Amino acid sequence: MEQTRFTPDLDLDGVSADEAFAVLGNEIRLEVIRVLWRADAAHEYDDGSDIAEAISYSELQKKVGIEDNGKFNYHLSQLAPHFVRRTNDGYRLSGAGKQIARTVIAVSGTDQLDFSTEIEDDCPLCGAHIEATYEDQWLRIKCTECDGLFGDQAPKGTLFLTSYPAAGLTNRNPDQALAAGLYRCALDITYMMYGICRECAGHISSSVTVCEAHESHGDRPCATCGTPFSVWADMRCDTCGFAKRLPAEMFATGLAMATGLIDNQELDIHSPSFEEVVNLLQNSVETTVSKNPLRVSITIKAETSTFTITLDDEMNILDIDRRLRSETPT
Description:
By secondary structure, this protein is an alpha+beta fold. The chain folds into 2 domains: about 10-105, Arc Repressor Mutant, subunit A (Orthogonal Bundle); about 110-325, no CATH class. Helix content is about 30%, strand content about 25%. It contains 8 helices and 15 strands. A 4-stranded antiparallel β-sheet has the order 5-6-7-8, covered by helices on one side. A 4-stranded antiparallel β-sheet has the order 12-13-14-15. A 3-stranded antiparallel β-sheet has the order 9-10-11. The longest helix is centred in the middle third of the chain and has 20 residues, at about 175-195.
């Protein structure tokens, strides 16, 4: 795929990415955002409206703890109007300010979490013991013996890998955290399949890579491409760089699951188990590739229906066909 560029010079409502980093790279300004967030957090409001709790200039200055009027006014002016808005009643966070506050909250919490003692399932590929780790805001499930699902496209043994904000682990045990992670991945994929970045709502650029001499058996990856999957897709946001590289089958399956296009009676999409998802990929998904032009058709066979999605070389959805199993040609 042609490398899409990260755009630090992108101008968003009068402030560039570089300027935004500079504005937020100051403890006093971040404290202003924290104080305004705490003031409004207890107030029920609709993000789509301008109704929000405001703080007067003097009260805000007192809570931030800066006695120098000139210094405080300077830092407050740097935040306005992009992150802080002035109203008749005082100051409140803008939509961007709320997003910054939520991001800080999302990454707050434990950075190390030991899942390994609580994972009882075996590897769905080879039956060996699997381990789960949480480090640097990433949740990873890996097999202790085989190469995993992704061959040399991911660390050896990887079965599942996803970014996971620490705050999301506050009230979830490992099984619940994994189910939530799988569901979040399906939702991320759905956004991307329709060309929308989940992080910034920017445009997604995509491409497809096909292994021409693919041979994969069981848990052994193909000697040519190093993975068990013959078709891979790269999706990347043109604006912020958020990206995923996954087998095309995973993109199609995630879309089908999140949008309810498959009706697998044994798979609860809101709380899927890892074993259920891998079993679906292994036993219920078939992929065919045609050329000139390149077309990838992925068929998912569920209990009562068969779902087929056809994609082009840029992962554009050309056709979605869903039939009851009784209607599917034999």
